[in-house]
Design brief:
The chain is of the alpha/beta class. The chain has 2 domains: 386 residues, no CATH class; 164 residues, 2-Layer Sandwich (Transcription Regulator spoIIAA), CATH 3.30.750. 60% of the residues lie in helices and 8% in strands. It contains 22 helices and 9 strands. Strand 6, helix 20 and strand 7 form a beta-alpha-beta unit. Helix 4 packs antiparallel against helix 10. The two termini are 43 Å apart.
């Protein structure tokens, strides 16, 4: 009931925040959607349809309160590659293949979410996300430089980003001072208005206000009005026809499937990583708990619906999600507002949207890029450890130098590869019973009981730790033989997640030492370890009273094992003069 009550706790303040954020995102979504469709090599209207259908469906079914879905540059590039086998002049087949590709992507993502593979995102460490955000912010800013300076971008989508920026800046057109004014003005206005909003606690309309003001400046100055030759002084958003997406079943041709299935699989995974990385990064700031499997299903439903409503496949948008968050969005309703606004704008105001200057959008996105990076946390992470610093640097460098999506994949792979050796570190130490009747770790100078070895193991008892376990057990066997030890207590309280490899090593040690007349006691055995031991039939040959499960009692299982061993020794050496601790003095207590 409590969680339901929180979900229903939607008031006017949140509604206003969502509407303002949705309107702001829509103002950016419209021109971006057209640009991304052109990158994919398809009609710009399919990009706008994606900003309506994909955005709305993902917002309805998603988990993140701030993630905005729709067409993205990375997905558009992959779509272009996936459709390359079709002649670009054959638009009928090209568009049908596009819709089928979207449906395939959606189906794959839904299956991934239903099988709950989204839990694998736990391996995306915070260092990877910080590196991803730094690279993404840099690329977002670099991608806007051409528009901010009023020059055409050089190169193509298959070229490395820095190479394209170099060609654009140093081998491109002359700088358009009007565009510079329209790109610098939003930066200055955004800084000033954000300070006023924070100081006077105004609604967060600063980014939307910046866009409106700069659009009016361009219009009044005549820079966004076509001249005698039909050209404008600065580039504008462009024209889109007034029509909403209608339902259409994608055409299926058997010879397309081998080409499209490979591309769909790649886009599905890249889209998931892109969306979850952005959602996780924003959730780190908002402290929102995200259901990643639900978000993956929402990604799939959005693309599946897009395939049946003439939409370009999409994913989580870095720039639009950041704007949504920074504009004060409170819930997923802001995404629905954005989609509805784009639809209304398409029907009513499409001719007016062409007056929105692209340099103004570029300036707004430059501000967004700067706000994406939490520099304080970035420097904190870089100083924390070589492990974290390495992940940040490698992820960021790969994102800038190679590809943003590959940087996340590489970061995840490195996280797992670096995690396994660290998890495989199995610690082993010897414990002793001191003259003060304390069981604790043995330190240099301590004289141990020659009749009993108390050996403590700690760590993950999985296949990666097998070499460490072998080394410790071999060393222990050698000492047992050299010192003619009769009793060994293996403390297993701090071992976790045992698997067949390590359990087999442990069983081999128990059989070998038992055959040599050594009594091995297993102390502090956790329920999961005990269950695995029973599954492999240990109880059929190993004495049950030699196992001391960890229980919530006054004395620990390890202490019980120590007393058991001393009692047996007392029986064997009844003629010897025993110390209180050897006789199992009840004054013994545990300190480990």
């Amino acid at each position: 009931m409590g969680s339901d009550r929180r979900r229903l706790n939607y008031d006017g303040a949140k509604g206003r925040a969502d509407v303002i954020a949705g309107l702001t995102v829509a103002a950016v979504s419209f021109p971006q959607a057209m640009a991304y469709a052109l990158i994919a090599g398809v009609d710009p209207k399919f990009g706008v349809y994606s900003a309506i259908v994909v955005t709305a469906v993902a917002s309805i079914f998603g988990s993140s309160s701030h993630l905005i879905n729709g067409p993205t540059s990375a997905i558009s590039l992959l779509v272009f590659t996936s459709l390359a086998f079709i002649d670009s002049e054959n638009t009928t087949e090209l568009f049908q293949a596009l819709f089928l590709l979207g449906a395939l992507i959606g189906g794959i993502q839904i299956l991934i979410g239903l099988f709950k593979l989204g839990n694998l995102t736990r391996y995306i460490s915070e260092a990877v996300i910080i590196g991803f955000m730094a690279a993404a912010a840099f690329l977002l800013a670099a991608g806007q430089l051409g528009k901010a300076l009023g020059v055409r971008d050089k190169g193509d989508g298959h070229m490395q980003v820095l190479h394209r920026v170099w060609l654009t800046l140093f081998h491109g057109d002359a700088i358009n001072y009007r565009a510079v004014i329209l790109s610098v003005a939003p930066v200055l206005l955004a800084i000033v208005l954000r300070k006023l909003v924070q100081r006077f606690r105004w609604p967060q309309v600063d980014m939307l206000a910046v866009l409106v003001i700069t659009t009016l400046i361009a219009y009044v100055a005549g820079w966004s009005i076509p001249g005698p030759g039909g050209r404008t002084a600065v580039s504008v958003a462009g024209n889109v026809p007034r029509s909403l997406p209608g339902p259409q079943i994608p055409e299926v041709q058997a010879d397309w499937l081998p080409h499209l299935s490979t591309g769909a699989l790649a886009i599905a995974f890249v889209g998931i990583i892109e969306a979850l990385s952005i959602a996780k990064a924003i959730a780190h700031e908002t402290r929102q708990k995200i259901d990643y499997n639900r978000q993956i299903v929402a990604e799939g439903l959005a693309n599946l619906a897009g395939g049946f409503f003439q939409s370009l496949p999409g994913s989580g948008s870095l720039s639009r999600s950041a704007i949504n968050y920074q504009s004060g969005a409170a819930t997923r309703f802001s995404g629905i507002v954005s989609a509805a606004t784009v639809a209304v704008a398409l029907l009513l105001f499409a001719p007016l949207l062409r007056y929105v200057p692209q340099p103004a959008l570029a300036g707004l996105l430059l501000v967004t890029a700067a706000r994406l990076v939490d520099f304080k946390r970035l420097f904190y992470t870089l100083k924390a450890s070589r492990y974290d610093a390495g992940l940040v640097i490698i992820t960021a460098f790969t994102g800038v130098a190679i590809d943003l999506d590959k940087s996340v994949l590489l970061g995840v792979i490195l996280s797992i590869l670096l995690f396994v050796p660290r998890a495989a570190k199995l610690k082993a130490k010897e414990l002793i019973v001191t003259p003060e009747r304390v069981v604790r770790e043995r330190v240099p100078g301590d004289v141990a009981d020659p009749s009993i070895i108390i050996y403590d193991l700690e760590g993950e008892l999985f296949f990666g730790a097998a070499p460490e376990l072998d080394r410790d057990l071999v060393a222990l066997s050698g000492r047992i033989e050299a010192e003619d030890v009769k009793f060994v207590i293996l403390r297993l309280k701090r071992v976790r997640h045992p698997d067949v490899v390590c359990i087999e090593r442990l069983e081999h040690f128990l059989r070998e030492e038992t055959a040599h007349g050594v009594t091995v006691l297993l102390a502090g055995v956790r329920p999961d370890t005990l269950a695995v031991l029973k599954n492999v039939g240990l109880q059929s040959w190993f004495t049950a009273e030699h196992i001391f499960p960890e229980e919530d009692e006054e004395y620990s299982a390890t202490l019980k094992a120590v007393r058991y061993a001393h009692t047996k020794l007392a029986a064997l050496e009844s003629s010897a003069q025993l110390t209180p601790e050897q006789a199992g003095d009840p004054g013994l207590y545990y300190l480990v």
